[in-house]
């Protein structure tokens, strides 16, 4: 009976995540065949890098008009690697031309801004075409091609407020201004006298939200972002400066180039191709991109937006939720098994003397290092170190999904091992003695008597871990895993409706965690059974002999 | 008489505290032996040393002509020959009544589930718990738990059954049901070694009574001898206090 229940729940959860997460994957192959074949390249695992005839380009796909994410291939958009969405924008058009010139197939790898340089250095992508400026700092790590776009710095402000009419950066005295982290935009803020410089922000999405909410008075960016922002949100305006009144910038800053690995032979080839694209053609491409970029929806209410976002991006959200569920479920199960192993090893009675004692001490020491290390560092940092580090140091190119599951598993394992160790220690000594008294050895005692009780007792803690994992997988967006948070960011980056988009994600997260909590509570109740026993009269005893032992 | 277990010069210390001092003691086949004595006299420790829940500090435990304290001796195999009934019952909380009696047979003795179930049902009937086969330990009273614990020990079909104060943790009204089961067992010729505070039980059922005091066997003999004509002053004092 009980085993069947476990199986049923497990099957349902697995099926749910497979349907949502990977089921979409099989559809993806069918569709991929229909899309023009010279552009779309799908590696089976979605992340294997470095095939000779591929040109792998990294971009945020969330920085219109340079690059953005859309759900179809209209306007020459290109499918994103390992994903069902498409990337469009100025960068994509340039990338297509470069790939064509190189005679290779273009593969777009959607990567967080901060992950672009590491991805390039570790060889996961061949080039960065992401509206990136060739700054001196970046040039220390990577090479850049010639310039393929040049823009001026502007400040995006709220319409109708004092700063809208500014003409010179001096007018921003006393204004709260910020810019994107790790960009030169942030550095130039100090040129404004008397400015109140705010903490730099991760991405444009965050800055737009902050501006809309009045947390900042404006943010520095380049003209295309200014055009996009003011087009998408009627509350925003862009302040341009005449020559001499704006920010003093170096050409290397306002210019935009292709990032390439150091000393790559690609640099020369790409420069040659870029020189073949005329100034007029570039302006034309940028104008097109500004026109085509995901537009604002006029004066819809939040509720209408909410409905439209769900209608238009439903599959994207569901795939994200499925991926989140798949990673957290698999991670929790594997982590639980790791924890079980570590917890059991750590509680083996220590022999009083001999080589066995030394060996056991060494093993316990290593396990403690594992537990302390992974409990003591943030998962987001581990993700960066493991995913990019493994490629840099050992030339291991992990599949993104596998890396995600690996990171969540070892993290959960570190926590679970302590929970399980505590669970074993808390079992009454009499249980061990009674098992020994019927002649059981340590392994038999553990599997038949102790662990089934431990597992029952730590079920609430395990449920906690599962729920935490569902939420914490959101940090995996730094290694470009397309889980729910990452998908939501893409949606919001396209439609500029941050509140509505993230509200959908909020609800989806809650549905997942709430369902999991309820299911686990149900399992607990089933395992505990009723408090009172009704004497059986005639029927034969239940056939579920040994069922609880089977759980171990 | 055939010896089942013979103990020679057994000693046990916890740190510097010597709990058992040079114990010589024999259990014969078919015998019911009760060990009495005040708290801290070492009677429970002696019982726990016999099935190695406590490792003796010195001496020999001879079973079937072999010293089971030898390093190479398989203590798990030896323990299956000794049934143990604990003061706190210690039923496996994760198993129902039937499985408590089966799991040892299947996992340790390697019996088939069907055989194990037959054996278990036989002994559960003996202790009057056959109607509770599907109950979890948490659903039983103390007396019921202890009867199941006895059935669990019997299901392993041991040579000796050890009882460690089997009624001390029970409410007074439940003591009787457990003692009755034990009396019935005593009459079947089972070899039993019982640590107990139930003087009436010791007097009525045992073939031999052992009185322990301060880690040594002070006096042993038939119940008549111990209870009616003790030779030692400390035996007399103990009986005066308890009877």
Automatic annotation (TrEMBL), chain A:
One of its GO terms (molecular function) is transmembrane transporter activity. It is a multi-pass membrane protein. InterPro entries: AA_ABC_transptr_permease_3TM, ArtM/GltK/GlnP/TcyL/YhdX-like, MetI-like, MetI-like_sf, Solute-binding_3/MltF_N. The chain crosses the membrane at residues 325-345, 366-388, 502-520. One of its GO terms (biological process) is amino acid transport. It is found in: Cell membrane. Residues 321-520 form the ABC transmembrane type-1 domain. It holds the Pfam family BPD_transp_1. Keywords: Amino-acid transport, Cell membrane, Membrane, Signal, Transmembrane, Transmembrane helix, Transport. It comes from the Bacteria. GO terms for cellular component: ATP-binding cassette (ABC) transporter complex. This is Putative lysine transport system permease protein. It comes from Anaerobium acetethylicum.
Automatic annotation (TrEMBL), chain B:
Signal peptide: none annotated. The keyword Transmembrane does not apply. GO terms for cellular component: plasma membrane. PROSITE patterns: ABC_TRANSPORTER_1, ABC_TRANSPORTER_2. Belongs to the ABC transporter superfamily. Gene3D superfamilies: P-loop containing nucleotide triphosphate hydrolases. The keyword Transcription regulation does not apply. This is Putative lysine transport system ATP-binding protein. Its main location: membrane. The lineage of its organism: Bacteria, Bacillati, Bacillota, Clostridia, Lachnospirales.
């Amino acid at each position: 009976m009980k085993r069947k229940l476990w199986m049923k729940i497990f099957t349902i959860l697995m099926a749910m995540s497979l349907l949502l997460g990977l089921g979409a994957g099989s559809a993806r192959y069918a569709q991929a065949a229909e899309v023009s074949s010279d552009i779309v390249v799908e590696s089976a695992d979605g992340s294997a890098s470095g095939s000779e005839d591929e040109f792998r380009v990294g971009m945020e796909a969330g920085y219109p008009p340079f690059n953005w994410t859309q759900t179809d291939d209209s306007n020459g958009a290109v499918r994103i690697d390992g994903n069902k969405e498409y990337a469009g924008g100025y960068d994509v058009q340039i990338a297509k031309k470069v790939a064509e010139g190189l005679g290779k197939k273009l593969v777009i790898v959607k990567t967080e801004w901060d992950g672009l340089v590491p991805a390039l250095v570790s060889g996961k992508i061949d080039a960065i075409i992401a509206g990136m400026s060739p700054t001196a700092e970046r040039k220390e790590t990577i090479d850049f091609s010639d310039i393929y776009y040049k823009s001026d710095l502007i400040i995006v402000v709220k319409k109708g407020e004092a700063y809208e009419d500014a003409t010179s950066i001096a007018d921003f005295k006393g204004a709260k201004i910020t810019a994107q982290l790790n960009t030169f935009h942030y550095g130039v803020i100090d040129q404004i006298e008397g400015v109140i410089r705010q903490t730099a922000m991760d991405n444009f999405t965050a800055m737009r939200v902050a501006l809309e909410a009045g947390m900042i008075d404006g943010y520095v960016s380049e003209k295309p972002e200014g055009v996009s922002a003011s087009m998408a949100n009627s509350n925003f305006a862009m302040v341009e400066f005449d020559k001499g009144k704006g920010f003093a910038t170096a050409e290397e800053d306002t210019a935009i180039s292709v990032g390439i690995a150091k000393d790559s032979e690609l640099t020369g080839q790409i420069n040659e191709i870029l020189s073949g694209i005329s100034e007029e053609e570039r302006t034309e491409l940028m104008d097109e991109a500004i026109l085509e970029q995901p537009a604002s929806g006029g004066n819809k209410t939040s509720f209408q937006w909410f409905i439209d976002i769900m209608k238009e991006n439903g599959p994207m959200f569901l795939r994200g939720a499925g991926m989140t569920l798949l990673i957290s479920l698999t991670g929790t199960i594997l982590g639980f098994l790791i924890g079980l192993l570590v917890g059991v090893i750590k509680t083996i009675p220590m022999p009083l003397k001999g080589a066995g004692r030394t060996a056991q001490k060494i093993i316990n020491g290593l396990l403690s290092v594992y537990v302390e290390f992974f409990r003591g560092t943030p998962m987001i940092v581990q993700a960066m170190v493991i995913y990019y580090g493994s490629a840099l140091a050992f030339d291991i190119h992990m599949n993104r999904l596998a890396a995600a599951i690996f990171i969540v598993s070892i993290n959960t394992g570190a926590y679970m091992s302590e929970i399980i160790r505590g669970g074993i220690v808390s079992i009454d000594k009499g249980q061990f003695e009674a098992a020994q008294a019927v002649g059981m050895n340590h392994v038999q005692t553990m599997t038949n008597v102790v662990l089934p009780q431990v597992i029952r007792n730590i079920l609430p803690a395990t449920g906690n871990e599962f729920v935490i994992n569902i939420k914490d997988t959101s940090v995996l967006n730094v290694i470009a895993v397309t889980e729910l948070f990452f998908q939501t960011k893409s949606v919001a980056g396209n439609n500029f409706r941050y509140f509505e988009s993230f509200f959908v994600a909020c609800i989806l997260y809650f549905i997942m965690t709430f369902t999991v909590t309820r299911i686990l509570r149900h399992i607990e109740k089933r395992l505990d059974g009723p408090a009172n026993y009704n004497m059986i009269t005639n029927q034969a005893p239940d056939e579920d002999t040994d069922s609880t032992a089977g759980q171990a | 008489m055939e010896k089942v277990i013979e103990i020679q010069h057994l000693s046990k210390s916890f740190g510097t505290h010597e709990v058992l001092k040079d114990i010589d003691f024999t259990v014969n086949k078919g015998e019911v032996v009760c060990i009495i004595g005040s708290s801290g006299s070492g009677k429970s420790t002696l019982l726990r040393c016999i099935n190695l829940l406590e490792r003796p500090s010195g001496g020999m435990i001879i079973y079937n002509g072999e010293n089971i304290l030898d390093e190479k001796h398989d203590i798990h195999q030896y323990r299956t020959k000794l049934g143990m009934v604990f003061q706190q019952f210690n039923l496996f909380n994760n198993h129902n009544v039937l499985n408590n009696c089966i799991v040892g047979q299947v996992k340790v003795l390697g019996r088939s589930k069907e055989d194990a179930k037959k054996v278990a049902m036989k002994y559960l009937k003996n202790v009057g718990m056959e109607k509770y086969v599907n109950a979890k330990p948490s659903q039983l009273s103390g007396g019921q738990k202890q009867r199941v614990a006895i059935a669990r020990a019997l299901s392993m079909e041991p040579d000796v059954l050890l009882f460690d104060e089997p009624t001390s943790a029970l409410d007074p009204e439940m003591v009787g049901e457990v003692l009755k089961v034990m009396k019935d067992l005593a009459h079947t010729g089972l070899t039993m070694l019982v640590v107990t505070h139930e003087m009436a039980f010791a007097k009525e059922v045992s073939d031999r009574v052992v009185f322990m005091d301060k880690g040594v066997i002070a006096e042993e003999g038939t119940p008549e001898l111990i209870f009616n004509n003790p030779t030692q002053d400390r035996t007399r004092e103990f009986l005066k206090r308890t009877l």
